[in-house]
Amino acid sequence: MNAESDVFHPLANYSEPIAQPSRGTALDDSSFLDAYSQAVVGAAEKISPSVAKIEVAQAAGRSRSGEPQERQGGGSGFVFTPDGLILTNSHVVHDARRIDVSLADGRRFPAHTVGDDPATDLAVIRIDAPSLVAAPLGDSQKLRVGQLAIAIGNPYGFQYTVTAGVVSALGRSLRSYSGRLIDDVIQTDASLNLGNSGGPLVTSDGRVVGVNTATIMGAQGLCFAIGINTAKFVAGRLLHDGRIRRSYIGVEAQTAPLHRRLVRFYDLRQESGVFVMSVADGSPAQKAGLREGDVIIALDGKPVAGVDDLHRLLTDARVGVSSSLTVLRWTEKLELKVVPEEVRSG
Question: Is 309 known to be catalytic?
């Protein structure tokens, strides 16, 4: 017996051919990618007839000769009713002199603003056009982290763009360009192309769950969308009143920490409040006796830990209604009666 025959070969007497490496893994990967692609393609095709390119002309001062100048801008939006109502971002159409809408089928129509709410960065515009396809609206409250999210826009007209990712966080807050905080914002890694602001964020079944509104540059492509439930509420108010009513008390203020002794002494639930820097003449705050240097810590018994808390509580329901304002004046705790008034847009 030679040296080679002394080596034990467990398959030496096995008559069947040795099986080749399975290709099942590659096929499974391919099937998975096909399913993912089908979901994205299906959602994009379902929603694309509703997606619009929005072009606006805004005032940009006057030339040296005194002629009025215009600044061109725009974004995206989507038809959400068959009679021509379109949702988009407020910053896309705010103060627009002229609005033109282009649809995916090549049609182009003039539009006018129905209502605009800078505090939530949402606006409703309308076009007069036949045979419109309304986007189906979903429920943003049912979203889950990790769910497929598809951002669609029409920045160039005639051809929509699509990016896909996942819902990476829910319940975020985002500062609108008006200074107020937008609550319950959807965060996604589906990147936004230039001009896609105002376009829909949709799920794999092609239902709109958000209105794309912003991307943070240098933050690994984090993008944000206003939940469609918020958009439904705002759109309803804009259609009814043309605006969103909010109340104000008339202070210039900033969030400030409270002294720990005051927090313990008054058994407060927060460690910060709203420091009043100035009080507007004739404002509800001045009429209530609020002074510069006071610190607001509650409104009608609800804790106020900062300016954003105060904004959230000053809703339209408080317009003309007497409310209790809890403030700290030095070390004294006071209860002042204030009657918030409606914010008047300039």
Answer: no
Contact 80, 58 (CB under 8 A): no
Q: Of the listed 90, 91, 100, 247, which one is catalytic?
A: 91
Catalytic residue among 50, 197, 272, 323: 197
Question: Active site includes 9?
Answer: no
Spatial separation of the C-alpha atoms in residues 212 and 168, rounded to whole Å: 14
* pLDDT tens, residue by residue, 227-272: 999 899 899 999 998 888 889 999 999 999 999 999 999 999 999 9
Measure the CA–CA gap between 214 and 223, rounded to whole angstroms.
Answer: 6
Instruction: Give yes or no for a contact between 155 and 195, defined as CB atoms under 8 angstroms apart.
Output: yes
**Is 139 a residue of the active site?**
no
CA distance 108 to 113: 16
Compute CA distances 206 → 42, 166, 209, whole Å: 7, 14, 9
| Residue 102 · residue 108 · CB < 8 Å | yes
Give me the chain's average pLDDT, please.
86
Q: Which two tokens stand for residue 207?
A: 């239902």
